[in-house]
Each structure stands twice: as structure tokens, then as C-alpha cells.
Amino acid sequence: MSRDKVTTEVPRGIPAGHRNWVARTDVVLADPRLVEASERLGRPLVKSAVRAAQQQARAGEIPTGAVVDAAVAALPLTAGGLRSVINATGVLLHTNLGRASLSAAARSAVVCACGPTDVELDLDSGKRGRRGRTVLAALREKVPAAGAAHVVNNGAAALVLAATALAAGKEIIVSRGEMVEIGDGFRLPDLLVSTGARLREVGTTNRTTLDDYAKAVGPRTGFVLKVHPSNFRITGFTRATGVEELVGLGVPVVADIGSGLLAPEPMLPEEPDAESWLRAGASMVTASGDKLLGGPQCGLVLGQEDLVLRMARHPLARALRVDKLTLAALEATLRGPRTPTYTALHCDITSLIERAERLSAGLRDAGIDAQAVDSEATVGGGSAPGVVLDSAAVSLPAHYADRLRAVSPAVVGRLDGGRCLLDLRAVPAESDTALAGAVHAAAGR
Ligand SMILES: *Cc1c(COP(=O)(O)O)cnc(C)c1O
């Protein structure tokens, strides 16, 4: 039967002898709600939701008249495979949850950039304009010590580009105490060597002196690399050589600060920032955009104009360039209001406790075993190891952990002492209603 002959009426009666008689797919798909969903999400996604609902009806799990309702309820919110999650883990920058959450300003900048934009066009003159010129200007305003700026796909790409453009066929001198694995088996030394640069390791795991570096510097040196050991800490009999000492070696000093702080953050005194390290004499600083900067995934390159331009003009730069959505989100992060990451880091503990108490009381009213408890949050995302942030959480029975991941929006909490804790530090206050709704939905499952 062709599609335009399909009746929109879904039979409601169950013919005798066919207890689990289920309407045909094309008949179900003609329901106005599913026609609308097909336009919004595409027919294949809607069809698979319908198939799953029909299956449930045939198995007697739902009434046969409820196929459309079940299919509508099971539709994804978007055609993109990613589901939105409330981060109640207490880890501010959770790598598995996509690190930093974009500000409302950055989100609307992304939406605006979705269509045709002036990303490479100067609308005043009608001529070609430099890609990302306004975001590069914003970076330089935020980091006055940088002579130039460039943006690539992520922090790792910034290092690859630095190694390729400034040290291919040469040596990168790096301390043995700074040979870092970023996470998921990704090791910076492997990444650097993959570019064709050679690594010249100096010093020991716990101690590297200026003299260790000085002995290694020579005509083959591309640059000295200083890596902030962002996700671990070596304590005890240690000695690291600071950027200000390395400057005297007479070769470029490239510093990977990791977290993307552009200026000092008093809450995190151990975290390096771009402005301070450039002022201390680093030739160039590289960092991630989606850690403490609170922006989209990208890699920032800031520093001496000649070196940054050598990188920006290298053929590899084209392969590492970011799209217009990233440029839009980054600029809005730099120029816009405080980011969710900043707010989560700075929010005061009394407000967190109040929220935990209010949420728990509301849930208890609905018969749910919820209590407000003290909690401890961390920065995460490979930043600020060892830093503990006072926090507050809603404590639920442990079996909520699985159920909360199945509702929409999904909620990811943390299991602790046989309870499921929903830590509120990384949850924006405006998400409390959605969080409570998710717990109610999970309770009903
Ligand atoms: C996170 C990090 C990186 C990697 O940055 P990505 O943006 O994840 O590619 C590199 N170096 C340091 C010191 C880091 O902390």
C-alpha cells in the first residue's frame, strides 16, 4: 500500500482471537504526533521507536492501543546521539561528560554561528577576512603578555603543532618529571615523538635542575618544553626548574599549562596561568579550552608573535583548525559572563547545603528516602589534583544510580558508602527542578 492511502486511524479494539494484535508500522507512523516527529528527527529514528513499541505490545508488556504513546515517549530529544546529562558526580570537569559546560552566552553564540556567518568574510569591505580574527583579538585582550594567539582543536593538537612547526628534525628538551600521560593511555612523549621531533629527557622523576637543561641545550635544540603535571603530584624530595630560570638558556621555552587559566585563580594557587607564565618569560603557552577556562574543546596557543605565526602558517595548522561553532563558543566564553565552571568553583557552601536540604525535603514528601549530606567535590578534567572543594549532596538509596542514568535528562551521581550521592557543586542551581524531576521519574521506574 502506498503511503498516501494510509488511514490515520489506529484501531483501538482488539479483534477476537488476536489478543496482541498490533497496528501496522505505516498505520502507526501516520499518527500526527509521529508525522511531526519524523519531520523533526528523521523517519528512521521514529520508525525504530515504533518498532520497539510494537515489540512491547506483541509481548504483552504494554496495551496494544498504547503503541503510539510508547513510541512518542521513547523518542530521543534530538537526532544527535548524545543525551543530555546532569553532572551530579561532584567532579566539576568530568572528562566522560565532556568536561566544561558551556555558558548560556556561548550556547547562543553557537546557535547563531550554525548558519552562514562572517567567519572568513569582512562584511564592511565585502572582502575575505582572517578566520577567527575577533576571537584572537579577545584572547589577546585577556592575555596582554601574548604577542599573538592561535586556536587549534585541543591541547594535544597545540603541542603537536608546536613540535612539528618548531622542532621537526630537532630535539625537544623535557624533564623526566614532566613526561605526562594525559588520560585514556594518551602519553605526551609519544605524541611529541610522532611528529618527527626527538625527545631529549633530562633530570630524574623527582628532581631536574637548570644545569640538567643547560647541559642538553645545543644546536639541535628546537625548544625546551615545560609541562604542568596537571593530573598528579610528586611530593617529598623534589625540585622542578621554573619557567623564569629556563628563560636564560637562550632557546624558546614552550609551556604546556594544561588547564587554560588565562590569569591567576586564587582558589587554585598551584595552577599555572597563561599571563603569569608568559610574563615569567615563556616564549609560548599552550592550553585546553574546555578545562578551567570553561569553554568549548579547543587548544590555545599564546605567545611570541614570530613563533605563533610560524605555527599558524604551517601546513599542518589547516588540519588542526577549529570550526566556526568552536570559534563562536570560545569568543563568547572569553567576552561573556562567568562560566558554569567558574560558578561551580566559586559557589558558597551555605547555598549548596540549602539546595541539598530543599531538594531532599521535597523528595521525602513524595516518600523517597532522601537526605542532605556533606560531600566533597573535585575539579577533575586533569586539573588541580588533590584540591578538595566542600560540597553538599542529596543522598539516595544506591539502586537509584542505575535508574537515574535511564531517565531524561540522565543524572550521573556517585556511589559512596552504599548510597547514591547527587553532589550539587557541578549542578547549576537552575537545574534543581530538572534534577528533582529526574529523581521522581527514577522512583517510579
Ligand atoms: C589536559 C592536558 C593536555 C591535553 O589537552 P586536551 O585538550 O585534552 O588535548 C595536555 N597537557 C596537559 C598538561 C593537560 O593538562
From TrEMBL:
**One Pfam short name:** SelA
**Enzyme Commission number(s) from the entry:** 2.9.1.1
Where does the protein end up? Cytoplasm
Q: Which Gene3D superfamilies match?
A: 3.90.1150.180, Type I PLP-dependent aspartate aminotransferase-like (Major domain)
- Broad enzyme group: transferase
Q: Which residues carry this modification: N6-(pyridoxal phosphate)lysine?
A: 291
Cofactor(s) of this protein? pyridoxal 5'-phosphate
Stretches assigned to the L-seryl-tRNA selenium transferase N-terminal domain: 24-58
Reactions this protein catalyses: L-seryl-tRNA(Sec) + selenophosphate + H(+) = L-selenocysteinyl-tRNA(Sec) + phosphate
Pathway participation: Aminoacyl-tRNA biosynthesis; selenocysteinyl-tRNA(Sec) biosynthesis; selenocysteinyl-tRNA(Sec) from L-seryl-tRNA(Sec) (bacterial route): step 1/1
Q: Which InterPro entries match?
A: PyrdxlP-dep_Trfase (IPR015424), PyrdxlP-dep_Trfase_major (IPR015421), SelA-like (IPR018319), SelA_trans (IPR004534), SelA_trans_N_dom (IPR025862)
- Tell me which UniProt keywords the record has, alphabetically: Cytoplasm, Protein biosynthesis, Pyridoxal phosphate, Selenium, Transferase
Q: What are the recorded GO MF terms, alphabetically?
A: transferase activity
Which PANTHER family does the record associate with it? L-SERYL-TRNA(SEC) SELENIUM TRANSFERASE
**Task of the protein:** Converts seryl-tRNA(Sec) to selenocysteinyl-tRNA(Sec) required for selenoprotein biosynthesis.
Q: Which NCBIfam families match?
A: selA
Protein family (similarity comment) = Belongs to the SelA family.
Q: What is this protein called?
A: L-seryl-tRNA(Sec) selenium transferase
Q: Which organism is it from?
A: Streptomyces camponoticapitis
**Lineage of producing organism:** Bacteria, Bacillati, Actinomycetota, Actinomycetes, Kitasatosporales
- Chain's gene name: selA
